[in-house]
Amino acid sequence: MLIPQEQANRSISLLAEVSRTVTAENDISKVLTLVLFIMSEHMDMLRGMITIVNRETGEIVIKESFGLSEEEKERGRYRIGEGIVGKVVKTGRNVIVPNINDEPLFLNRTRSRKHETKEGLCFICIPIRAGSEIIGTISADRRLGGPTEKENKKEKGGRKDNDALQHHVDQLSIIAAMISQAVRLKQLAHESDRHDQLAPPPTAINAEQETEESIPEEKRPKNIIGNTKPMISLFKLIDKIAGTSATALVLGESGVGKELVASAIHFKSRRAEKPFIKFNCAALPESIVESELFGHEKGSFTGAVATRQGRFELAAGGTIFLDEIGELSLPIQAKLLRILQEKEFERVGGSKTIKVDVRIIAATNRSLENLILEGQFREDLYYRLNIFPITVPPLRERKTDILLLADYFVEKFNQQNQKGIRRISTTSIDMLMRYHWPGNVRELENCMERAVILSEDNVIHGYHLPPSLQTAESSGTPYTGSLQQKLESIEKEMIIEALKRTRGNMSRAAAELGLSERIMGLRVKKFCINYRKFRP
């Protein structure tokens, strides 16, 4: 029999593995299949299935399963209100069947259990929600009296069995929340496939144009520039999530444009006419952040001369963008978790509970998983935010977008500074394309603003770009010295860049460079590098 601590450890292991799968995989079908496989390993699950509701036909179908053949899976079709699955979709309530022999609503439509004894076989079915809408279910077959319950039946007439069932219901409920956005995307794809089957086949020209790396112009965000494959994938994700009310977590290095992604999601959504409120969690002291987010009552602290609405109230009906979410203190994280779960909060110094309908988009350039291990970020909040992670690619992974962005910034700063820059010289283009852009799009924007201001002949030359972009040839300073000196110079520069990216974290910098921590320490000592100065 599992003691509570062992049970808790298994639950954490299960949920952590599901979270990693949802975050790491881009293929929706693979995500759902792997989640069911992980459940089978951690929950002694015999069979599991994820169903979705087709809103056009009202039919509930099995999209992914574990322990079912393709034929059995195909037979699993239900109407809303029909059988246990249909009942869960209709009522939005969990259903636990301790013994399927005793449940008349259990239809066994897949006929997957006809060759095995049904005594002691239990069935759990949980609704999957997108906001207030039921979009599908996740269910599991388990046999009571398995390895984790054999001793439980001896105690108090099955009370332990009920406790074990409730524990699995709690686990499934959390998993249902974690995969809800993936199921929503699967639902949209299923409805789209059915629509395509009814529509006339595309012409040869259209089929050729609709490649994997293309995207219709109307689906492209108006505020983001890019034509590379990583950006096309990003645009598709934005288009998918914009039509929902799901919480989104935007990840990426500093300067990649996470705020632009949040803005694109909001203005492509049904909330576009409502407020879009932005808040940088690292910009203000902790004592002020709580009042800024949740508001305060008159007299709640020194200087509170009047009642003031917080950002969440100002964003009512719309979207709030929380940048640098990893910088929030633990007490404020607890209040944020309550808003995500209950959609309610109290102002600072107030006792009145305020209900609010706000979509939350969070962003960070830090590793929230590492912050959890360090005790600086709540694990339950991470799972709530990480429903639909979106990673914005760094500029070095989308090199061909550099010139598009450079042209855009030239036009922008031409207008702002009444300049007439007409072209970028070949030398400058080479320098822009060779640079690794640790500051990403923000750094490129600053470079182009400087170049536009410095240019006097309506052309941007290499010497107008910052020294960090200059090469030996372009600056007229050819390198002299031995090969060993040059190699050591490059090695030192790479170590400094890695420390900059990891904010002075020696272990992470060593991992990025493929060095052991011992070798990293020796190199830092050899080149007299002060890693502490890179820490925030």
CATH topology of the largest domain: Beta-Lactamase
Q: Report the CATH architecture of the largest domain.
A: 2-Layer Sandwich
Distance between the termini: 48 Å
**Can you identify the CATH superfamily of the largest domain?**
GAF domain
Largest sheet: 6 strands, antiparallel
Global outline:
globular
What is the β-strand count? 15
CATH class of the largest domain: Alpha Beta
Class derived from helix and strand content: alpha/beta
Strand content: 5-15%
Domains (count): 4
Helix content: 40-55%
Q: How large is the radius of gyration?
A: 28 Å
Q: What is the arithmetic mean of pLDDT?
A: 83
Written description of the protein model:
- The chain is of the alpha/beta class and 536 residues long.
- It has four domains: 4-196, GAF domain (Beta-Lactamase), CATH 3.30.450.40; 217-391, 3-Layer(aba) Sandwich (Rossmann fold), CATH 3.40.50.300; 395-475, Helicase, Ruva Protein, domain 3 (Orthogonal Bundle), CATH 1.10.8.60; 483-534, Arc Repressor Mutant, subunit A, CATH 1.10.10.
- It is 45% helix and 14% strand.
- It has helices spanning 4-24, 28-42, 70-75, 83-91, 159-198, 204-209, 229-242, 258-267, 286-294, 311-314, 330-342, 368-373, 379-385, 401-417, 426-434, 440-454, 472-475, 483-501, 506-513, 517-526, and strands at residues 47-54, 59-66, 77-79, 95-97, 121-130, 133-143, 248-251, 276-280, 319-323, 344-345, 354-355, 359-364, 389-391, 423-424, 459-460.
- It starts with a helix and ends in a 10-residue tail after the last helix.
- Mean pLDDT is 83; it is low at 147-157 and 199-212.
